[in-house]
Amino acid sequence: MEGVPKALGVIIAGLLILVFNLLGFKASLYLNLLFLVVLVSWLLVTKASYKSYCVMLEQFVKRKFTSLDSLNTRIHERTIDPSVSNIKQVSPAEWQLFTELNKIVSEAESNKSINEKKSVEFLLHSLLPANYFQQWFDKEPMIVQLLKSRFQSGENTGEQLRVLHLLSVVKSEEGFIKQQMLSKNPFICQMAVKSLQKQQVQMDVKEKASCKTWVQEMMGNQLWYYVAIEDVEDDPQLAQLKEALKRENQEITNLVFEVLAFVYEPAAVAEIREGIMGQQSGDGKMLSHELLENFFDQDIREKITGLYLQDERAARVQLLHEFYPQQKLTSSERLIDIIHKEYQLVPLYLKLLALEAICKRNDPSKEDILLECLQSVHPLLAISAGEQLRNEYPGHYYKAYEKLTVVQQKKMESLPQGWREDLDKAEAFSSTLPVPAALLPFLSSYIITEREDLANQSCYILQTEGEYVAGDVQWIYEDRAQKIYVPKDASGIFTDQPVKGFKSTPALSFF
Description:
- There is one protein chain.
- The chain is mainly alpha-helical.
- Among the domains are: about 5-80; about 110-200; about 330-430.
- The chain contains 22 helices and eight strands.
- It has helices spanning about 5-20, 30-80, 90-110, 110-125, 135-140, 140-155, 155-165, 175-180, 185-200, 205-230, 240-265, 265-275, 280-295, 300-310, 315-320, 330-340, 350-360, 365-375, 380-390, 395-400, 405-415, 420-425, and strands at about 85-90, 430-435, 445-450, 460-465, 475-480, 480, 485, 495-500.
- It starts with a helix and ends in a 13-residue tail after the last strand.
- The relative contact order is 0.10.
- The model is unreliable at about 65-95 and about 420-510 (pLDDT under 50).
């Protein structure tokens, strides 16, 4: 599109030359002056229309994504079957969890000063969505401050993620969450982004500048992933590691565009994202390039073009070498590089896979790397290295173990060693957790009703207030184990949700 006015200006100038030649007006000085006036006038016209053109593009993509959202909503509404009963089963184990956690909250309500710490522990270990605690946070601002303190002093990334999720419903903590969005830890950043998206926040000029800087740093990290994938892809023993690196790279791509949506028009960012990721036709890709050219700053545009619009990894490295110099390594050297990378760039489970590959391949650096990992600040990596050392180099293992601090030794002894099995489950997305989404009924619209069934046995109904219909409730026994039923339309009470944390690793120990 941008080339059209340029070409049109040249055509007009050429036509004028032709006309004046036909009329016999060939004085070069006057012709040059005339063409200069024409070109300056054309420049002013195109500059004046450029702003309107950008507004038109912005309105176009906004209308497109608004219509898509409306269509998805209508499709979702049509899939709802009003004839389905609004009663849903709750297992006895989930009922026990409900009663225990409700007791904790009741105690906290009766004696807040004693139970503040207990309340924070409950919040951190509960799997409830944050919106169920919003009223509690409004009434007890001290709980919010304790959560922030726990975030700032905590070493457990999984715990910090839970705190950010809880604070996402506290409007006054918007500034705190914005600070975390620029964290070098992509786990923290992603949770902060989701929290800010939920609050629909707006960034000021200074915050947008910080976001641009962060995005460029993250794209540099991505280029490292591209090079690392290339270094390990030819080794069949590293196939699992290669796929894990690809997933990491894709997650960072998603995160980059989510942050860019805070800086630029979100609909334009979404259109560009679809276009450059190869999900659109030729016209769609042309529109994406046009939006990229007209809405993005030059420094961001250059890096997006070099990183995402090149099919060959070698071309990416060459185009971005000035900004992000990279090093070509052998597969063995790359494995060591992965282990040495900071945790903000390479998550723990990638380091575990790299360490496992070094041991299986019997690389020359195997013993040195194991001894180095034994000193790791992350106990799960240390215990994995210690297990290998104890089996293959027992003498070196016991000497190195004695040099560890008491704290390190205790951490290693307290962690499970079966991380490999957990990781296999995580990668297969087969791990699920029960999510009791309607605990704390005094904070939500749900109430518990105790009734008697036909056999004069007590039954418990978890229901929305004022919507209970006796005929919809069934009570059955299976092997003397009672089943509890609750309304199905109660925002997913006690649903099983697949666990998909950042990096496709649900276990907090892998952060």
